[in-house]
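Structure in, sequence out. Go:
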């Protein structure tokens, strides 16, 4: 939670069109024509003739024996004949050839993905379809199978070889993913999301108007009204991973709000007087944070489309709900979703609950959760301003409605509190001990290394872990990630806060 009313919460495609089976040779049984039209020539015969004539240029076998006829499409302008490359009679996935014929049957163009002279990788024993599907599901962290899943044996090109593999189409939640699984060892060779995605445009505070303006002077909430001073702080951004519906719903964020923001052109350029502005803020900053986490090598931390309830509460507070695993941002004071630091802080709670379900069962654990949220929010704010800036303040814009400090801050990460004397039993206050230690890691090693150490360490914790366990876990993470290269400084940083790493 953003404010000090924290209650420990343990409460609870687009699919690729399937290829017509490759049961039709260049001569022999005629495959169904995909679109009928008046054709005064034998399209397949004309296509075969063209392929053989250009076989040397494209590397085709002279007899075209590994090209299997798929379909013919007739239009008013031209005829298109498609072939599938095969290996040992099985599909070589994603490698096809099309022949474009004019109205007289003359070849206008050959488009080819054909791979000549392929060496086939041998395997001793082939796993079954069900085993391949399970391997794909595990790699995607998907726990439930779906009757729409499909599996097909064939070959993929890897390092110049035809590798026996299964193509597995996996439906899990709202994701539709195509995975290629090695037919012997079960390794997932590659995968891709088959859902349609769109990139939108929008305007946001990045991270907030106080940081980008340099001070809070002249910046007032004024009941969400626009002002020249605030509008001048808007930044144009790209909104990645949108699902193409026009709503702010994508790979890592699903916005639910009273505004129910929609754009058929994927343009979401609002000022703060619009209720949709906070929707764009929440989408952009959470999506950016998840992409950052994945750029550090973590693809299994909160890798989902999190539901974010924007402006659905009138409280001057925001929170993560473990039972529903969604986020809620309130509108009291400055709307919480107008400040990237606040957005990131709440996303931090979701991250920890994803890594350690039920985390924060003790006061120290709760303080660690608040401290990590402040670390995540502050370093994110810093990164959007300068790679070398360490401001030690979170939520400057949000705090203009209640803070009298300069700059206004929800909390600071440089109060030099020392454990255990500074413990007061309130998780936000006590969290300043933990957040400063983590922030000092970023100042010592840089944001990327510090964040990697902290995220890696979370996997070692339990729901009841406290400061000492957390510090030891960070030191262990350094051993795992960097062979202990930062151990001495880690010990010193936590010692300054009164926390042992032993």
């Amino acid at each position: 939670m953003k404010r000090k009313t924290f209650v420990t919460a343990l409460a609870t495609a687009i699919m690729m069109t399937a290829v017509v089976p490759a049961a039709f040779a260049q001569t022999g049984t005629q495959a169904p024509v995909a679109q009928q039209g008046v054709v005064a020539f034998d399209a397949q015969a004309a296509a075969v003739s063209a392929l053989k004539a250009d076989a040397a240029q494209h590397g085709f076998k002279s007899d075209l024996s590994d090209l299997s006829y798929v379909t013919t499409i007739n239009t008013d302008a031209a005829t298109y004949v498609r072939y599938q490359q095969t290996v040992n009679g099985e599909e070589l996935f994603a490698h096809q050839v099309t022949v474009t014929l004019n109205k007289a049957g003359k070849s206008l163009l050959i488009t080819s993905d054909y791979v000549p002279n392929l060496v086939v990788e041998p395997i001793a024993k082939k796993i079954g379809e069900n085993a391949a599907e399970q391997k794909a599901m595990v790699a995607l962290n998907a726990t439930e199978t779906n009757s729409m899943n499909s599996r097909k044996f064939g070959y993929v090109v890897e390092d110049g070889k035809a590798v026996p593999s299964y193509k597995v189409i996996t439906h899990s939640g709202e994701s539709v993913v195509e995975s290629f699984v090695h037919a012997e060892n079960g390794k997932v060779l590659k995968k891709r999301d088959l859902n349609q995605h769109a990139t939108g445009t929008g305007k946001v505070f990045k991270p907030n108007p106080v940081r980008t303006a340099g001070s809070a002077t002249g910046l007032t909430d004024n009941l969400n009204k626009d002002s020249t001073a605030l509008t001048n702080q808007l930044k144009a951004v790209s909104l990645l991973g949108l699902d193409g519906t026009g709503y702010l719903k994508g790979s890592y964020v699903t916005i639910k709000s009273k505004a129910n923001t929609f754009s058929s052109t994927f343009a979401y350029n609002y000022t703060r007087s619009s209720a949709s502005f906070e929707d764009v803020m929440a989408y952009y900053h959470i999506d950016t944070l998840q992409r950052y986490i994945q750029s550090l090598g973590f693809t299994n931390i909160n890798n989902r489309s999190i539901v974010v309830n924007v402006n659905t509460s009138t409280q001057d507070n925001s929170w993560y709900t473990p039972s529903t695993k969604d986020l809620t941002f309130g509108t009291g004071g400055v709307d919480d979703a107008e400040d990237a630091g606040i957005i990131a802080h709440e996303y931090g709670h979701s991250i920890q609950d994803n890594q350690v379900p039920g985390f924060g069962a003790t006061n120290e654990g709760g303080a660690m959760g608040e401290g990590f949220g402040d670390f995540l929010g502050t370093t994110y704010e810093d990164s959007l301003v300068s790679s070398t800036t360490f401001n030690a303040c979170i939520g400057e814009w949000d705090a203009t409605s209640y803070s009298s400090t300069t700059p206004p801050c929800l909390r600071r990460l440089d109060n030099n509190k020392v454990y255990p004397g500074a413990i007061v039993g309130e998780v936000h206050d006590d969290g300043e001990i933990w957040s400063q230690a983590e922030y000092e890691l970023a100042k010592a090693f840089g944001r990327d290394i510090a964040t990697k150490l902290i995220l890696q360490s979370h996997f070692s914790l339990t729901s009841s872990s406290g400061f000492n366990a957390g510090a030891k876990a960070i030191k262990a993470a350094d051993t795992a990630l960097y062979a202990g290269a930062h151990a001495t400084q880690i010990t010193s940083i936590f010692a300054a806060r009164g926390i042992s790493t032993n």
